[in-house]
Specification:
Number of strands: 14
Distance between the termini: 43 Å
Strand order of the largest sheet: 3-2-1-4-5-6
Number of helices: 21
Largest sheet: 6 strands, parallel
């Protein structure tokens, strides 16, 4: 960085002045002693030493005098430059409005700030507590403004222009701090600001989803990335008749939080084969991890065939066994470990090239996937953090548009059956921003799986419409069960509706599709039919009930651009 180079050269030249001056003074008058020579050389910076009564001046001392002058001038220039830069930045921030504020210049903050610079109006202010953070200079070079200080301090946020900001994302190293920053902004600094608290901990996120009564979005960019990746895999898989029939088998070789997010996302998205559960081969499993996962998600076995292996992917699947999974995902402790493991598996197994995926979490500039691929054939490479951001707005998932339609269709359908719907306790409000975050998340998940179902519908081939719709209805029920299972729900132990307990997360419908009565089967059917974008002239050929017909018509009439 520019500032670092200036400081380095100032330090080198200052040391050179002291060394040359000391040698010069000591050579000139050794009787005064070495320490006096050092003291006189330091005085060269104040321009009060080095003038001799009896020239000529020794060459080393002459060099030290002039170097001291140039060093002093350079220091003054650097100081004035720093003051001017700070003043200019302060003035720019003072007149900036409708900008984004990113609290935290770590790996997530760096990628998010870069994404903001490329989208919207591109105005970004970064708040970072560590003035020595290497990203600060790079962000300034990219045109972002930087405020040094603790984002928990209101004065720092005010300095960053929070009262005029359009959005704020808190991605410091602490989930609790991120939530506290957003809460402070919402409560008394800027009530209209769009807020995103980075909560990478699933425990914190799920705890607050039902308890936080605010518009703060609880975001995990790792969770977003994992869901997006698994949706991409599901869309690929559902286009294959064999996988659609027999189910997907996927290998996940990951560690720590990344493994947890990949597992949950795979269970949620890979419900493409009706009643047949996806098979998840989980490798590099440490002692106790299987028990901990099943303790947290007791109904996971209802929606996925989980196979836990202590060995690595290459150890679990031997080279000549012919036993290759349909997909293989790698996300290990470091990027180079991930690349190495993916390449080793790709070379030794028959899983198609594009279905072996290395998920990196490194710096966005140094980990461009294009530069890591061979020219002919190779496995796929994704940057997880970048993959977790929206393409139009980093804080808004790309699926948000469809998620809002999901809710609008549901609400208007309920209102068609009951004109007063939305006015009683327990009923959902019409406005998206007034929904609990848990409900918004549920709509996002449904919308993501609509993409999967559309891919299945568009590639159904010779499969009859009714057969495919029946199949997708079973997939929808499994998807709904998977969503409940990944929220910690379990079966209530009875098929009676009275046995359902929302507070204790017990549900009577966590059963097979064939165990449902016809009204419940209709709900699964109607939930996705409108999303298939079936041409109106083809609808009469599909036997749908009146509610499904109403939901299809509602979806066609909705103008997504007007959804707030």
């Amino acid at each position: 960085m520019k500032v670092d180079k200036q400081l380095l050269w100032l330090a080198i030249s200052s040391i050179a002045v002291v060394i040359l001056g000391t040698i010069g003074f000591y050579t000139l008058a050794p009787e005064n002693g070495f320490l006096t020579a050092v003291y006189q050389s330091v005085q060269l910076f104040s321009m009060e030493s080095g003038v001799l009564e009896h020239p000529p001046t020794p060459m080393l001392l002459e060099a030290a005098r002039w170097l001291a002058l140039f060093t002093l001038l350079a220091a003054v220039y650097a100081s004035l430059q720093a003051i001017f830069t700070h003043f200019k930045s302060t003035m720019r921030i003072a007149f900036t409005k409708n900008h984004a504020i990113v609290c935290g210049a770590g790996r997530r903050g760096d990628v998010i700030a870069r994404a903001f610079r490329k989208t919207g109006n591109g105005k970004v202010v970064i708040v970072e507590i560590d003035e020595n953070n290497n990203s600060i200079g790079e962000m300034r070079n990219l045109g972002a403004e930087v405020v040094i200080g603790n984002a928990l301090n209101d004065s720092i946020l005010l300095k960053a222009g929070i009262t005029r900001a359009r959005s704020l994302v808190a991605v410091t190293g602490s989930d609790e701090k991120n939530l506290a920053i957003c809460s402070a902004v919402e409560n008394h600094l800027n009530t209209s600001c769009e807020l995103s608290a980075g909560l990478e901990s699933w425990a914190w996120r799920t705890y607050f989803l039902d308890r936080l009564k605010s518009k703060i979005r609880l975001d995990s960019y790792l969770c977003r990335a994992a869901r997006g990746l698994m949706m991409k895999i599901a869309c690929e898989a559902v286009r294959q008749p064999q996988l659609r029939t027999h189910g997907v088998r996927i290998l996940i070789d990951a560690v720590d939080a990344t493994r947890q997010e990949m597992l949950r996302a795979a269970i949620l998205m890979l419900q493409i084969s009706g009643d047949k559960k996806p098979v998840l081969e989980i490798t590099s499993v440490a002692a106790g991890e299987e028990a901990a996962f099943l303790d947290r998600y007791p109904a996971a076995d209802l929606v996925a065939d989980l196979r836990w292996h202590s060995g690595t992917a290459s150890q679990t699947f031997s080279e000549n066994s012919g036993d290759s999974p349909d997909f293989a995902v790698f996300a290990l402790g470091s990027d180079i470990e991930t690349l190495e493991a993916a390449e080793r598996f790709w070379m030794r197994h028959n899983t198609p090239d594009e279905r072996v995926i290395a998920c990196l979490q490194g710096d966005s500039d140094t980990m461009h996937s294009a530069s890591l691929k061979k020219k002919d054939r190779d496995f796929q490479v994704f940057n997880l953090i970048s993959f977790g951001l929206g393409s139009k707005d980093p804080l808004e998932p790309d699926i948000e548009h469809r998620a809002k339609i999901c809710h609008a269709v549901y609400f208007k359908n309920e209102q068609a059956k009951n004109p007063s719907y939305g006015t009683k306790p327990g009923e959902l409000p019409e406005q998206w921003d007034k929904l609990a975050e848990r409900i918004r998340e549920s709509n996002r998940l449904a919308a993501m799986h609509h993409e999967v179902k559309r891919n299945a519908w568009q590639t159904k081939g010779n499969t009859e419409d009714h057969a495919m719709l029946s199949h997708l209805s079973r997939c929808e029920h499994m998807r709904w069960m998977a969503e409940k299972a990944m929220d910690g729900w379990r079966w209530s132990g009875s098929d009676s509706k009275a046995s359902r307990d929302n507070d204790k997360l017990k549900h009577h419908l966590l059963v097979s599709y064939d165990s449902l009565d016809n009204p419940e089967k209709d709900k699964d059917y109607n939930a996705f039919l409108w999303s298939l974008d079936i041409p109106e002239n083809e609808l009469p050929n599909i036997l749908i009930n009146e509610e499904a017909r109403r939901m299809v018509n509602l979806a066609k009439k909705l103008d997504a651009s007007q959804l707030g």
